[in-house]
Structures are given as structure tokens and as C-alpha cells.
Amino acid sequence: MRKIRVTVFCEHNQDKYEPVKSVYPDGMHTAIAEAFEDSEFEVTIATQDMPLHGLSDEVLNNTDVLFWWSHIDNNLLDDGVANAVCKRVVQDGMGFVALHSATFSKPWQRLLGIEFEAGEWGRFRTMPKGEKERLWVIAPGHPICQGITDCIEIPKDEMYGEPMIIPDPDKLLFIAWWEGGDVCRSGVLYDRGRGKVFGFTPGHETFPIYYQEEIRKVLRNAARFMAPDPQMIIQSGEGHLSGDPRENLTHCM
């Protein structure tokens, strides 16, 4: 059976410096990629400082599920790369997973049809000590939730809270509760064309959340569920999906 091809994209900026470097000395992308050390996965690393951010057409065309962590450099991502990611999801069925602050990334916002800066999108609290978080499973039969008990307890994380200005998800998998009393739709799943898009909010950079085995299990489950079916038929050539107009459009130019 062909391996599930996972690409982990990481901004790889804050994790070069303290205090993040002490938590993720080899980079956040390394900790996230370690979730996929099982032999059923094949992992590629992409970082924003690479040419084309590590996301060339060759890499994207050989990716089944793209996991994305970004934060302070979201606006510096090349628009052409962002569009290529979205096209690969919608047209070819690649899965896209937005982790934590990737909710402000260009691919996530374009796939959801939103464009918001932090503070316009929802409520959040950033504090050095963080808050206790419980991720409650509300869809226990869903493949992404398999092997998870009633909730995942995270000792410290940055609070993301409602109201979040996002479209209603096609499926809501996790709700987060915070010790400050807030709640958050923490695991939201969307269908976009042939592909699936999953937003998973845990993962502030100063806390060792991506070392937690329950979090890694969710990531593995997501990769298995969101990988495109190898038997999916992608129409090309003749027909309305070929890109060729079926009428004379010169009057529109």
C-alpha cells in the first residue's frame, strides 16, 4: 500500500530564538513531523525561508496532506504559493490542516473565504503562563477522533475563544474549554472541492503541545482521513473542467 505523503510547513522564525528555541530546539516542524514516524507515512519538511517556501509544484503534487504552522510572517507568504496550495486542495483533493495561528495564514483564509487580522477574528489571550485547556471530543465516532478519550487536557496553551468569525464548519469535532471560562470551536472540518480542510487550534509556540501523544494521534488520524482517495478521478483534457471556454468570451474582455 502506498504511503500517505505528508508535508509539514513551518514558518520557522520564532523557533530560531528564545523562548521558543528552548521548547523546540530542532524547530517546531521537527516536533510536528515526529508525529508521522510510523512507517505508513512519508514526510517532507518545508519552511518559509526555503525557495518557494519549500512548496514547489513538485512538492505539492507529491503531497496528500499539508500541515501548516505559521504566525508572525503570514503576510510575507508569496501569493502565488498560497494560490497553488488552494488549487491543489480544491482541484486535486489534497488535505490541508491549519495548526493554531495558521488561522491567519493566506491558504486557510482563502479556502474559507475570509480575511481577518488578529483581533478581528475572535477572542484570544496571550500570557506567559498560558491557561489550562481541555479539548472535548464531540464527534467520538469520527475517524479524526479515534483513540481519543472524552477529552485531551493540555496543561498550558494560548486561549482562543468565541466568537470566531469563520463559516459554520461542515463537521465540528472538538470544543475547547479554558480555565478562564471561554470556549472555542477547536476542531473544525470543511469540504472544499475535492479536498478537505481541518482547523486545529492547539499549539502555541512557547508550550510543548506538539510533544503530547494525544495531539500527535489527532494529527495522524487527520492525515489518514484527509488523504485523497487514490481512485479519485481528476478530469483533464476535453470537457468543462479542461479550462477551455465553451463559448466566445471576447465580449467580456
Helix content: 10-25%
Low-confidence stretches: none
In spatial order, strands of the major sheet run 2-1-3-4-11-10-9-6-7
Q: Residue-averaged pLDDT, rounded?
A: 91
Sketch the major β-sheet: 9 strands, mixed
Termini gap: 49 Å
User: What is the C-level CATH assignment?
Assistant: Alpha Beta
What name does CATH use for the topology? Rossmann fold
Mind telling me the CATH superfamily name?
Answer: Class I glutamine amidotransferase (GATase) domain
Task: Domain count, please report it.
Answer: 1
Q: TL;DR?
A:
With 253 residues, the protein is α/β, with parallel strands linked by helices. It has helices at 20-23, 28-33, 57-61, 79-92, 106-112, 213-226, and strands at 4-10, 41-47, 65-69, 95-99, 123-125, 131-137, 151-157, 159-161, 171-178, 183-192, 195-200. A hairpin with a 2-residue loop joins β10 (183-192) and β11.
Spell out the key features of this protein.
single chain, about 250 residues, alpha/beta, Rossmann fold, 9-stranded mixed sheet, two-stranded antiparallel ribbon, globular
Structure characterization notes:
This protein is α/β, with parallel strands linked by helices and 253 residues long. It has one domain: Class I glutamine amidotransferase (GATase) domain (Rossmann fold). The protein is 20% helix and 27% strand. The strands form two sheets. It has a nine-stranded mixed beta sheet with strand order 2-1-3-4-11-10-9-6-7. A hairpin with a 2-residue loop joins strand 10 and strand 11. Helix 4 crosses helix 5. The longest helix is centred in the middle third of the chain and has 14 residues. It is globular. The chain starts with a strand and ends in a 27-residue tail after the last helix.
